[in-house]
Amino acid sequence: MAVYVYRCPEHGAVELARPIGTAGGTEPCPLCGSPAGRVFTAPRLSFGDPRRRALIDRTERTRDEPAVVAAPPPRRPQPRPAAIDPAWRRLPRP
Ligand SMILES: [Zn+2]
To answer: What pTM, to 2 d.p., does this model score?
Structure first.
């Protein structure tokens, strides 16, 4: 199903869902029944989640504009050592 926009002389723009390719030039207005002419609009395409779309765009862009690495990545903070048991200090040293 696709959503087509029609303009009723009384109610303005109305949207009607019709199977793709079956939209006529005029359709009766669902509110008053008067003939409403079809209005051609830009298709409402959805590309899904914007973050996913940005990832796809970045991935496609690297094909022509690969990212150049100028330096190694910053070091991650080292994990803190496990807490030392004070009793271990009293153990004999080699
Ligand atoms: Zn109407």
So the answer is: 0.47
